[in-house]
Structure formats: structure tokens, C-alpha cells
Amino acid sequence: MDPRRIPLIAGNWKMHHGSASGIELAVAIAKVAKTIRGVEVVVAPPFTVLAAVAQSLEELSEQRGLLVGVAGQNLHHEAKGAFTGEVSASMLVDAGCRWAIVGHSERRQYFAESDALVAKKAQAALDNKLHPIVCVGETLDERSAGKTLEVVLRQLRAVLPTIVPARGAAVIAYEPVWAIGTGKVATPADAEEVHAAIRAELDAQGGAAFATATRLLYGGSVKPDNARELLAQPDVDGALVGGASLDVAQFGAIVQAAASIVRGA
Ligand code: PGA
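Above: inputs. Below: predicted complex with 2-phosphoglycolic acid.
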């Protein structure tokens, strides 16, 4: 982490939680967030519970100054129209979101999302004042073939023309596909190597101020026992957490790990 960037810990709930358990989890996370300074916390519940979660968080924040942002896990790039089953960026805003995950590897893999489509989604998010969390990452085969940086930089370059003009509003999440939900985590050195390459590309394409302002999250089996080491890397500015974000003790411990680095503890 670098003191010039506020760390961000985002929880991707994927296809988990209805309204009762989702609100309970979000409120419990907000209580942890309240005790912590200097770390931004975001949760990404399923579409069906976004509004309920956002509303409960808003009520809590009015009462107690809590602050947890809400993200959509995906969006459709068109503003509206005959796209059965889809949700637009403005609908996410309407539900109370300020964030949107785009290009998650599960979307790329199971829903055939291309680099070009991911860029359109990031654009739609920015057009609606949502912060896109743009996911990039290589598969195991690509890593084994020595193509990690080639793949990650290809995915990144597709979205750079969209996010450079937005200055620091977009976040990049590096999530090696082989580390997602597998318990196999990249070593801190592996993560830093890719994050540093991403930062260098941001600098080359968008300039030093843009590269310094843009937060880079690591994702893939982040847990309380590996979070601190990953977050201590100079170009790792936070985490995108899947499985461990469903458990308030684990997610809270990851947020605490970020906060302890901020404090220099
Ligand atoms: P995981 O998921 O933490 O369960 O590996 C991360 C993600 O998919 O964002």
C-alpha cells in the first residue's frame, strides 16, 4: 500500500444471500467499518438485494456515521431497452450503488464477455458516476505458458481509453483466475510483479498522476491469514474478496489488516 491512495476492501458476494441475511451481513460489516479509519469498504450483493442493503446502510450511516459503499456485480452497457434480464448503470445508481464490478472473470468465462464489452460496461458505469472495479487476470494455462503479463496488459489496454479520462475514478482488480475460489493464492511477490506492471502501463498511457491516483486491488482467495502480506506490497491498494466476504469475522479481519498497515502497526 502507498499512503497516497486510500485502501479499498471490496466484498463480492456473488450469487449468495437474500434480503434478510444480506442486510444482516451488511449491517455487521458496517459496524466493523465504523471502528476503522482510513480504509474504504464496499460490498457487492446480488441485484435483488442491492436496494434493501443500500437502504439499511444509509439508515445506519445517518444514525451512526457508518460508511460502506454498495456495488453492482455487473451491469449492461446500454442505458435502457429490450434486454431481458439485464440491469443498467442508472438502475444500479437508483438502487443506491456508487460502484460496479465489471469484467469479473466469471463474467468473461461463463458469459463470454470480451475485452471490448468490458470497456463498454466501464464507460456506462463512469457515464453514470459509478466507480467501475475493472477485473483483469490470467487463467492457469496462460500463466503456465508464461503469458500472464501479456494477457493482463491486453485486458487493461482495452479499458484504458475509457478510464484514463476519468482520472482516479476507476479501480483495477487483478484477479488471477486460478486463484479465485480455489484456496490457491498468488504469492505477495507474484501479485506485486503484476501490480507493478499494471501501474507502469497506467503511467505510460495515462501519465504519472493517473498512475498514482488509480487503486489496484488484488483478488483470489484473499483470507485473513494472507491479507496482510498481500496488502503490504507497494502496488497493492486493497482487495476484492469473494468467499471470505460472506463471513463478517473474516471480512472484518481483512479490513483490519488494511487498517493496521495504514496505521503503520
Ligand atoms: P475468492 O473470490 O476470494 O472466493 O477467491 C474472489 C473474486 O472472485 O472476486
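The chain has a mean pLDDT of 96.
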